[in-house]
Structure to design on (760 residues):
């Protein structure tokens, strides 16, 4: 055994006994910046740093959401953990909080230092720096957990040989204590996002995994079948698959084979933080079809595979992109009760100390809503507070039934708007009961209501009480066919079937409706029409396929005026700010980082437009510089051969705007330019840049008096001795809003190159 070389960073020990003296991979200057942050800033500052820097490596390495992938795993406080490929410590802190000891293996010294500095207050972390093959023989054989988060795909590079992945796992399995588990998070090479136009995460190329990595390389991801073959090949006897969504890096939901997603749940798919992507089809709609066909496990974007005994956790949802006071985790857990088989409970746990009060308030919300709806026909899902893993958690019963959202979607898919309206009115009637009582669930949306049919005998009893379906199967089938219309005379058999379907429909309308989630209950009344309108509006907003119901009908049904709606959405804005605090959502961060999503038709249009010299191309810089992928063409901008008129919508994250007026040497005169209706003061320094000669208009004797005037005489002409003219506007010097409008009139004259060179 090599002589130990130990460095102490706070309470963390770094062991360099097997360090080869050189880091074989690095992100260069970015790692220097990360090390500086880890040394001099606290973890509480990371989110503000992410907001400020707006770059992928900072988000990836420092985001607290990275911990979601392991945070839910139940672990004894004495557990002994091995983390292979710990990197910059994105999940190390979560493991250290849960376990007794954490041993990290990491090839890079620089990344190990980053990890050590950011967790210097943890006294249970040891980081061994060096190659896995060199360190592995020296590891003990008593680890309760071994984690490979985004690491297993590099097994070929680590191990070499003919069966590198089997050898990799065999080596690790030898270091497990009896009953220990290996946890692997990895991309699915057949994940739907790759078919839809995302680039392969490691290679940055399109369709690499789908095409079986024909270009070669040392990185391999696998489908579920491929992983199972590897597990079986290395002697594993038991394993389970979980399905992180949207992926394992920034997981918000975790599904299992016992609790798979429902139709309509998988809508958060634009998660390209690292690079641009194409959008070849609507992933939500595709996921809906795969869910209906039972194919979601095949096309899940990522896998979390657990080798060893299964967990009681069957589903997890994280709500930690909120203010710390409201950051919680929701779980569905299996329970084993003697003589009753397996049942399920739902738990909501605080993720911060600040969120404990929010969780405690759920029991009070249950009591107040129960009192309000006493004597009505809306049941409130029972809630009780208890202690679990040293935390106060809110526990709810697991309710079987059909989600109202699913029922209403089924109506619209059949074109049965009449039945949709019946259910909406039933919803309004039930939630509006005793509306003057000082308790209202602000977020009472369709997805939070489950229906159990009134007449079970008409629909057949559900044979499976697990959350795998989350609904009454036969009832769901009956609902799909309810109110089916047929031209001509029905046969006796058809008439009987139609009668049964109608009975099923009535059974749902008159059944037991349960409010299963009422997290945002406030101790004040709220008008029924506002509750109903908000539920319907969000329902329509979430899916374009729901536009069969017009917003005008919703307004009429809820007796809402435009003024009422404006007031409600002011309240909605306040509510969203209340929930999120000052945090940006992941969708907002993606926009700030500036990774565009390109539609193939746009690329075709760009190719066609590029053939035309009379074209205007717009580039947007959100802090990452200009790129072709962040540009677009403006059609019909030319008003004849000499005049360009533009009206551009610009979001508040755009810092620089570049206008390419044509593809030829020319001279232009900016005749007019406004930003949000205000004249752009192009005469000011640092506001206008160009790759041509800017010719400012002459000033007379009254130039001082005209210094702040902003008319066409202040706008310059520009001579471009190039076939790629561009005009740059520094929007950082202007008052930007979330949404902005830039208008411009530009006079343009095409000229010979030699003449523009002389003029310039």
């Amino acid at each position: 055994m090599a002589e130990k070389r130990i460095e102490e960073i706070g309470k963390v020990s770094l062991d360099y006994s097997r360090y080869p003296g050189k880091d074989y991979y690095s992100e260069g200057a970015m790692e220097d910046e990360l090390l500086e942050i880890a040394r001099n800033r606290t973890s509480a500052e990371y989110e503000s740093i992410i907001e400020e820097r707006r770059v992928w490596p900072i988000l990836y390495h420092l985001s607290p959401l990275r911990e979601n992938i392991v945070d839910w795993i139940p672990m004894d406080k004495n557990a002994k953990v091995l983390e292979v490929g710990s990197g910059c410590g994105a999940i190390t802190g979560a493991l250290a909080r849960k376990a007794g000891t954490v041993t990290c293996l990491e090839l890079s010294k620089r990344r190990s230092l980053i990890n050590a500095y950011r967790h210097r207050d943890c006294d249970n972390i040891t980081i061994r720096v060096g190659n896995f093959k060199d360190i592995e023989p020296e590891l003990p054989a008593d680890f309760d957990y071994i984690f490979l988060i985004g690491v297993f795909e590099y097994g070929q590079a680590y191990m070499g040989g003919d069966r590198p992945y089997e050898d990799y796992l065999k080596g690790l399995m030898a270091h497990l204590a009896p009953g220990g588990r290996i946890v692997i998070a990895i991309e699915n090479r057949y994940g739907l996002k790759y078919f839809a136009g995302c680039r392969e995460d490691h290679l940055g190329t399109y369709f690499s995994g789908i095409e079986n990595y024909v270009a070669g390389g040392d990185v391999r991801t696998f489908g579920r079948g491929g992983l199972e073959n590897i597990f079986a090949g290395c002697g594993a006897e038991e394993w389970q698959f979980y399905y992180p969504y949207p992926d394992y890096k920034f997981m918000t939901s975790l599904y299992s084979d016992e609790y798979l997603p429902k139709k309509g749940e998988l809508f958060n798919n634009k998660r390209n933080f690292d690079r641009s992507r194409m959008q070849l089809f609507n992933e939500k709609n595709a996921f809906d079809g795969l869910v209906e066909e039972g194919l979601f496990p095949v096309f899940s974007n990522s896998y979390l595979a657990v080798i060893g005994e299964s967990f009681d956790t069957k589903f997890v949802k994280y709500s930690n992109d909120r203010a710390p006071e409201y950051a919680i985790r929701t779980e569905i857990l299996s329970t084993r009760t003697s003589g009753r088989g397996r049942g399920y409970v739902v738990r909501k746990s605080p993720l911060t100390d600040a969120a404990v009060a929010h969780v405690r308030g759920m029991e009070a919300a249950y009591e107040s809503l129960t009192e309000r709806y006493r004597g009505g026909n809306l049941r409130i899902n029972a809630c009780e507070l208890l202690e679990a893993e040293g935390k106060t958690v809110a526990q709810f019963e697991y309710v079987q039934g059909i989600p109202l959202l699913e029922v209403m979607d089924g109506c619209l898919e059949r074109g049965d708007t009449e039945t949709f309206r019946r259910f909406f009115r039933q919803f309004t009637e039930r939630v509006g009961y005793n509306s003057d009582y000082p308790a209202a669930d602000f977020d009472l949306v369709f997805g939070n209501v489950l229906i159990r049919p009134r007449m079970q005998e008409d629909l057949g009893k559900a044979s499976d009480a697990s959350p795998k379906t989350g609904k009454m199967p036969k009832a769901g089938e009956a609902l799909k066919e309810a109110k089916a219309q047929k031209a001509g005379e029905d046969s006796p058999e058809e008439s009987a079937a139609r009668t049964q379907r109608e009975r099923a429909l009535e059974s749902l309308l008159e059944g037991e409706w349960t409010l299963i989630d009422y997290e945002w209950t406030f101790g004040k009344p709220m008008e029924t029409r506002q509750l109903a309108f908000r539920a319907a509006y969000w329902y329509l907003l979430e899916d374009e396929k729901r536009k069969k119901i017009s917003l005008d009908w919703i307004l009429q049904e809820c007796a809402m005026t435009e003024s009422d709606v404006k007031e409600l959405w002011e309240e909605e804005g306040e509510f969203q700010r209340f929930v999120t605090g000052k945090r940006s959502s992941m969708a907002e961060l993606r926009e700030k980082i500036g990774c565009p999503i390109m539609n193939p038709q746009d690329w075709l249009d760009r190719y066609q437009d590029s053939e035309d010299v009379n074209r205007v191309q717009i580039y947007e810089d959100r802090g990452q510089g200009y790129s072709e992928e962040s540009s677009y063409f403006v059609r019909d901008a030319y008003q004849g051969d000499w005049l360009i008129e533009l009206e551009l919508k610009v979001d508040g994250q755009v810092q620089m705007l570049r206008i390419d007026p044509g593809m030829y040497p020319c001279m232009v005169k900016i005749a007019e330019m406004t930003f949000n209706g205000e004249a752009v003061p192009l005469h000011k320094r640092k506001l206008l840049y160009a790759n041509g000669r800017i010719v400012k208009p002459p000033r007379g004797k009254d130039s001082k008096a005209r210094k702040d005037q902003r008319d066409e005489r202040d706008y310059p002409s520009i001579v471009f001795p190039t076939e790629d003219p561009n005009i740059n506007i520094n929007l950082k010097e202007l008052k930007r809003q979330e949404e902005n409008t830039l208008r411009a009139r530009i006079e343009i004259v095409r000229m010979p190159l030699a003449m523009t060179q002389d003029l310039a």
The chain has 25 helices and 34 strands.
